[in-house]
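Limitations

Structures in this collection are predictions, not experimental determinations, and the ligand pose is part of the prediction. Treat each record accordingly. The example that follows, with KG4 as the small molecule, is included so readers can see exactly what is and is not provided: the inputs are given verbatim, and the output is the predicted complex.
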Amino acid sequence: MLLLGIETSCDDTAVAILRDGRDAIANVSTNQDEFHRAYGGIVPEIASRAHLALLSAAIEHTLDRARMTLADCDGIAVTYGPGLIGSLLVGVATAKALAFAARRPLYAVNHLHGHLFAPFLESTEAPPYPFLALLVSGGHTQLVAVDGPTQLRVLGKTRDDAAGEAFDKTARLLGLGFPGGPALDALARDGDARAIAFPRYRPEGDALDFSFSGLKTSVRYFLERPENARVRREDVAASFQAAVVDALVARVDAAFSRGSFRAVALSGGVAANSYLQQRMRAWAERCGVDLFIPPRSYCTDNAAMIAAAAEAQGEAVRVDPLVLAADPNLPFERIGNAA
Ligand code: KG4
Ligand code: ZN
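Predicted complex:
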């Protein structure tokens, strides 16, 4: 099966053609960072206008690269939520028009489910069900039991900031600009993770939740104290990163030991973090667990993962192109869109 995937939920205008849920024969992503950098964050109005200007060309370019036409595609998969409403509308309206005109099935994918299927991309071996997924992105931080393509249970989530949001806000405190996560990751490589003992949040009882806003505030107070003016920014970055990663690894360990999972998968933009990958690999080796991490380009938002989710979830997410509506607040549990 050849699926055309479209992802425009935030600030990446992404299109891909995926063969059999695994091989991206073309994967195009137009990053909008240039447009948002001056504002220090994503400006929704700019994002939707940029999608509008870029999406048609991105689709043509993707088809050209794959040496295909729309008629060669077996279906169209699109992100319909959650995300920025203006951004989602551009992708959804485009996908509906293409599906209608080409008379191809339309699949409506929950963006968060897209991230869960990123580890299936370009892999020689797919994660076996049931697996435990750690989804860490700019907007979400969740531990999910993936019992099957449409059987998803949230075991824990953040009570305030998402992991990526904590990276971005802390990067801003360190003067690293936008987007901050990758820059903080790079800076931390030259730092000492034990230099500063930032707090590690522990949920009460056996909850598997996260919280990162207290950590971010600790970093801010630390940097404001005059006596810390000479502390190396590399050490602050590495110590902050270690606090985030400690919490993530501890919760994965707790969730894994309580379930009967056959593997663990990482996904979302923060899964690209080199220290998180290093620590998770060490944990998996120590515990004898099969760990799946998507290639870096599939950790952050992309359209191949949207097509992968559509391939896996199949009929459960097939929708009528005339009635599909974008939903900026789409809950994690929602599969398909009948409304
Ligand atoms: O999944 P994603 O592309 O978009 C959302 O759905 O949110 O994730 C973007 C987030 C941003 O917060 C970005 O700073 C973070 O992922 N990120 C990283 C790294 N690469 C991206 N955070 C830490 N280290 C990285 N290497
Ligand atoms: Zn995302």
